[in-house]
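Page 42, continued from yesterday. The earlier attempt failed because a stray header line got pasted into the input along with the sequence. Redoing it now with the clean sequence only.
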Amino acid sequence: MRLGILLFTPIFLLAGVTLHAQEAVNAPEPAAAADSAANAELKAQLKAELLSEIRAELSSEVKTAVSKEADKPSRLTVGGYGEAVMTRNFFSDNYLRYISPDKYKNDKSHGRFDLPHVVIYLGYDFGRGWSMGTEIEFEHGGTESAFETEFEEGGEYESEIERGGEVALEQFWLQKSFSPAFNLRLGHMIVPVGGTNQHHMPTEFFGVYRPEGENTILPCTWHETGISLWGRAGDWRYEVMFLPGLDSDRFGDNGWVSGGAGSPYEFKIANAYAGAFRIDNYSVPGLRLSLSGYAGNSFSNTLSANRTGADRYKDVKGTVMIGAFDFLYDAHNWIVRGNFDYGHLTNSDKISQFNRDMPNASPSPKQYVGSDAIATGVEAGYDIFSQIRKLKERGHRFYVFGRYEFYDSMCPVLKKVYSD
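This time it went through. Structure tokens are written below.
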């Protein structure tokens, strides 16, 4: 009985399968073909729409990602500037023209081509507040020298100066920024004393060359290795700097202390230290008011001060003190800049005598140096393109300007040192 049921069940299922198969075989062929084509077309359409949506979604995501990446500021900064000038100077080129002006006032004019400054700088933002800055400056086209064989002198080798410019590493520093109001910078950097040192870019002064007064009595551009703390809060910006003192060996009558920032050696002497500061205020729109200063000893900051026989100079310090005020007004189509600098040198009489007694082979200019120096000047320019609507809308500017300066690198001179 159980066996009969088992045998019957598979036979029944088989018969059912055979029946349905037979019905499918006997179905009308045209209808099946139409349904198959419709299904295939529907599948293709759905597939195409799905692929289109996927592509659009991916394209939107990629564009968004690329846009975000493009909007990110680059960590690497590469820049620079250069000045190529031609001048025609309507005064004598004799080096005594200021000492005997009446004698040379009718001399012919003279012209010059020059590359005063060509600068390349690199910077990098490491993230987390760390950044680095470097600046290399080529002054007056750089410097070139070569060995040549002089046939007129028996074939001797001579070193020839091909170009009399300079190449200097003006900045090389590492900075940690804790906040906009607190930044710590270490390395070689600009000393922020005077308007020209802090704002020495070609677009920050009128004229072909930098203002002559500050450029004469102060190191310019003044750069030293040291430590700087600076920041900005509201309408105020501040900076204080610790740096080596100037070298009195290189002071002189024409440039006062300007030569003291350089070093003729492979290192910077730091027997004496100095401090510098700068404060800027921007409370009035379009107006910047700035005060800066420097103080440090200079006589001990030299190798020659330790030579035999210098005991009579043991109490000489040669303290250099500089105070400077400068301003900028940039509004209503006007740009007006001005500066006033005053410096004082203690023991200038003894420093003058010491330098005059130095050997001829020394790097000192062996000149008298004044106890005080002064430089003041003002320049003003008006944008005449501001009165031409189309040029103003395009952002073009053309300034007609004038500048007045007065400076004296020996003001006054101690009578026991030197007198005109």
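Notes: The mean pLDDT is 83.
Reminder to self: strip header lines before submitting.
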